């Protein structure tokens, strides 16, 4: 059920961001909404872990839920974030910029790796006459 809700939420979030662009909202308002949206996948994963831990607790007949949450969440491997590719369209720029600036500003990532991420995050759409 969480997966289904997550898919619906993602679609609604995309529609909201698109509507904000169409209505010429301020960059600040867009950034606030985008940052809120970025936190939803992490919250969904946290809820999935909680549900799994509750199910484990019920299956084991244990009452100590806290120890299960701590041990499972510390070994949890989060999925990689899927970036939307930038096609060069002006309407896609704000979304792409807000996603990619996290990589650009992360000092722990090597500059060469940042460049590879940039290449992977852009579509290879040749211009006219190419």
What does the model show?
- The chain has 130 residues and is an all-alpha fold.
- Helix content is 70%, strand content 0%.
- It is built from five helices and no strands.
- It has helices spanning 2-22, 27-60, 65-74, 90-105, 111-120.
- Helix 1 runs antiparallel to helix 2.
- The longest helix has 34 residues, at 27-60.
- It is globular.
- The model is unreliable at 63-73 (pLDDT under 50).
In short:
This is Integrase catalytic domain-containing protein. The protein is mainly α and 130 residues long.
Record the SSE blueprint.
Layout: H1 2-22, H2 27-60, H3 65-74, H4 90-105, H5 111-120
Helix pairs in contact: 1-2, 2-3
Unreliably modeled segments: 63-73
Count of β-strands: 0
Average pLDDT reading: 75
Structural class: mainly alpha
> Which percent range describes the beta-strand content?
under 5%
From the alpha carbons, calculate the radius of gyration and give it in angstroms: 19 Å
SSE run: HHHHH
Helix content: over 70%
Terminal CA distance reads 47 Å
Sheet with most strands: none
Shape: globular
Number of helices: 5
Protein name: Integrase catalytic domain-containing protein
Organism: Trichonephila clavipes (Golden silk orbweaver)
């Amino acid at each position: 059920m969480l997966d289904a809700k997550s898919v619906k939420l993602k679609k609604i979030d995309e529609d909201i961001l698109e509507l904000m662009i169409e209505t010429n909202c301020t960059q600040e308002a867009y950034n606030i909404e985008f940052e809120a949206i970025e936190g939803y996948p992490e919250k969904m994963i946290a809820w999935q872990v909680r549900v799994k831990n509750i199910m484990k607790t019920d299956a084991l007949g244990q009452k100590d839920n806290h120890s299960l949450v701590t041990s499972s969440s510390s070994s949890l491997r989060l999925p990689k974030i899927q970036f939307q590719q930038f096609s060069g369209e002006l309407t896609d720029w704000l979304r792409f910029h807000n996603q990619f600036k996290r990589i650009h500003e992360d000092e722990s990532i090597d500059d060469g790796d940042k460049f590879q991420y940039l290449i992977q995050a852009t579509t290879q759409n040749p211009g006219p006459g190419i």
